[in-house]
Design brief:
Strand content: 15-25%
Helix content: 25-40%
Shape: globular
Strand order of the largest sheet: 17-18-16-15-23-24-25
Largest sheet: 7 strands, mixed
Length: 517
Amino acid sequence: MKYIIGIDIGTSSTKAVAFDTQGRQLARSAKGYPLNAPVSGAAEQDADQIVQAATQTVAEVVASVDAGPDQLIGLSFSAAMHTLLLLDDNNQPLMPLLTWADNRSDRMVPSIRAQDPDLYARTSLPIHPMSPVVKLAWLAQEKPELLERVARVVSIKEYVLHRWCDEWVVDLSIASTTGFLNLEKQAWDEGALQIAQIQPSQLSKIVPTTHQLSLQADYAQQMDIAQGTPVIVGASDGVLANLGVGAIAKGTAAITLGTSGAVRQVVEKPTTESKAQLFCYALTGSRWVMGGAVNNGGFTLQWTRDSLVPYSVPPDEACELGDETCLMSVEPSYSTYERLTEMAKTIAPGSEGLIFHPHLLGERAPLWNAQARANFFGLGRNHGQAHLVRAVMEGVLYNMYSVFSALELAGGKIETLRASGGFALSDLWQQILADVFDRQILVPKVIESSAFGAAVVALVALGEWSQLEDVEERVAIAHVRNPISENVKQYQKILPIYSDLLADLKHHYEHLYQAFN
């Protein structure tokens, strides 16, 4: 039995997933690692820990698959976007890996926009502290002596590939997420490099996402696989998530809802839009994925559980109003996501006029403002904890609908959404999503969509599949959720209010930030 392994390097863990040549999952392994914040705004990681995690997960998957060593036909990569690692002449890190979540460079955004107003139009990456361009401009001011020692500027995937295969290459997909790539020319952008104060010689060679490397002997031995096993460079996690759920046809988009979230659709050529709300990243040279990522997905429900409803007393233990003796004697049970969902189900769509803007972590799309903050609007004495929970869930999806609207305006009508991510498995999330978006929601069975997308790229690159479109017939659908007309009508009254409030509030984020910094 021949099989392929897709490796997904994420912000919190690396996963290796084995699939047979028909796309069926065989085995999975995951290794977590910390996201460090030594100072406010930092979000750093140890790059060598990630190399180790990738190596260990592959070794564990190989050990658990019932197949001979010659049956593994290749390895392929998915990786988180916007990572930045600076290396010296010996290819050793000069500082920790900076992730997309590191926002210490936020103060550079206004000056970069003023310096190069056309940067977004050329690169498709909104000007935001997640961008390696912005991070490098900040480092040039904060640590100029460090930049003088930099021999190479790479992403985490490039670093792992070099350790495994002893070559410096970057796939077109990851290159398009750096802010250094001129999309039209598919080459490094001179203006972006000038802002970042780096040279083309410090960057890796750009290759197709189907490009093949060979695994070196020492790492092959650690994984107990053959030296020279093909390593397909793959693409970024976002575009591969679309591929992995089969959302590559015109009129179909993917929505991912995990800790963060995203809405994306495949387009035929690099595309930007006038408000700079959306990104456009490569899947292949002829397929590009346009969309927007949000910081505040399921994390908001975690915050709700921990801060708004830290514990809840089951109904059968409820006390009479004012019975303090009873209240003191009841041992509270800490809230779970299931308990929060049950609370939210008791509240009608619209949360009786309570609206939540979910920007607890600042925001990427559609605001691209690290200073954005969350708020409740419309709070009245009729609202209780269950209303707050429902409003939080709805607010996350109102925010994602704003991205969806911008995406439809730029990329065309979207008829169907394919949903993935941990919270997409919830019946209530699915129904609110269908009702807010007024679209049919398909939930594929595949869980590890980015790892599967990486495997699909490899299967095409190695000649096992004839084309990427073959994935559509191989992705099974677990759930179908249709909008409920009366709920749709309610949400269509609320969405314009949400948007108008957001337009008013965004002018005050900077004032609030300055008042406390």
